[in-house]
Design goal:
Strand order of the largest sheet: 3-2-4-5-7-6-12
Order of helices and strands: EHEHHEHEHHEHEHEHEHHEEHEEHEHEH
CATH topology of the largest domain: Rossmann fold
CATH superfamily of the largest domain: Thiamin diphosphate (ThDP)-binding fold, Pyr/PP domains
Structural class: alpha/beta
Strand content: 15-25%
Radius of gyration: 21 Å
CATH class of the largest domain: Alpha Beta
Distance between the termini: 56 Å
Helix content: 40-55%
Length: about 350
């Protein structure tokens, strides 16, 4: 049976995927350039289709704490926001990570710092991959580069969130959220019943049915030794994620002498830059991280041993480039090129920068 095809904005695709993935609850607050997620969900009335709850909370702080309650009951819950809104959620995200609660977050990044601009940027990389809030924790971070991946990463995000009992962040940007592309739509996944939740998620706070022992979910522990053991457990989980869940795409890396490393919108720009350079006989490949945590450092290190130079292309002052330099272990020169304030670099300027940085004469 052929899949249904639709022309959709990235934000709309995320909203439709939320319904189709069997989401129990969406709790959010409007902010440009991601407001279409909630607008789409409100218009589609998923409570009539699946029973899914869609609620505009009174603030971003309220919405992230609603996720804490829903996730604690074993429900599939999500929120979406843009950079300043995600900043307001950081305390709640840290609570979710500390309590090991699965949920899905979407950040459609805009330029900062501060209120900045409503135009696209990638300057939330540090916040997304280094924890963002207080404490030693990580978020699995998926970076879509197309409207189709905005759709696909909802189901993938839930799978990873419940597999590892951790929040998962989809790190998009204003360009991908607003652009329109063809999307393949999956069949509806039914929401889990209460009985199915009790069977699948014994940790969930589902009451003392049939006299079973109650569950207590919290991120608070005032015993230092016990809390250290909990932190060690979390670090072991993040190491397992790093060892097994790194995702990436390589393009024309077999014969590449130079390498672009870019994600999201920047990776789309680099594909055209690569074509321009190859027409001039300059062999360039692309490594596109799909997971920013875990970063595909093994693949990067392997490619670093084959190329003469690596250019990190980001819509920021340079954040991912620090991880690239760390992971290549000094094997190859690494440079950065970025634009800020919501400006998307052109393929021609990116190609010219690579030539200036690495090719003499």
């Amino acid at each position: 049976m052929a899949k249904e095809l639709r022309l959709m904005k990235g934000n709309e695709a995320f909203g439709e995927a939320a319904i189709r993935a069997g989401t129990d609850g969406y709790f959010g607050y409007p902010i440009t350039p991601q407001s279409e997620v909630m607008e789409y969900l409100m218009a589609e009335k998923p409570h009539e289709r699946t029973g899914m709850v869609v609620l505009q909370a009174e603030s971003e702080v309220a919405s992230i704490n609603m996720l804490y309650g829903g996730a604690g009951c074993g429900k599939k819950v999500m929120t979406s926001s843009s950079s300043p809104g995600i900043s307001l959620m950081q305390e709640g995200i840290s609570y979710l990570a500390g309590a090991e609660l699965p949920c899905l977050l979407l950040n459609v990044v805009r330029g900062g710092p501060g209120l900045g601009t409503i135009q696209p940027a990638q300057s939330d990389y540090f916040q997304s991959t280094k924890g963002g809030g207080h404490g030693d924790y990580k978020l699995i971070t998926l970076a879509p580069s197309s409207v189709q991946e905005m759709y696909d990463f909802v189901a993938l995000g839930y799978d990873l969130a419940f597999k590892y009992r951790t929040p998962v962040l989809v790190l998009s940007d204003g360009a991908i959220g607003q652009m329109m592309e063809k999307v393949e739509i999956d069949e509806q996944v039914p929401r889990l019943t209460e009985a199915e939740i009790i069977e699948k998620y014994p940790w969930a706070t589902t009451g003392r049915l049939n006299g079973r022992e109650r569950n207590i979910i919290t991120s608070l522990d005032l015993d230092p030794s016990r809390h250290e053991r909990h932190n060690i457990k979390l670090q072991e989980k993040y190491k397992k994620i790093a060892d097994t869940e790194a995702r990436f795409e390589t393009i024309n890396c077999e014969d590449a002498e130079y390498l672009f490393v870019a994600y999201g919108t920047s990776s789309r720009i680099c594909q055209k830059s690569m074509q321009l350079l190859r027409k001039k006989g300059i062999k360039v490949g692309i490594l596109r991280p799909i997971t920013l945590f875990p970063f595909p450092q093994k693949e990067l290190l392997k490619l670093a041993g084959k190329v003469k130079g690596i250019l990190s292309v980001e819509m920021s002052a340079g954040q991912m480039v620090e991880d690239i330099k760390l992971f290549v272990e000094g094997k190859v020169p690494v440079e950065h090129y970025g634009r800020m304030g919501g400006i998307i670099p052109s393929p021609a300027e990116v190609a010219e920068v690579l030539k200036q940085k690495f090719i003499k004469g």
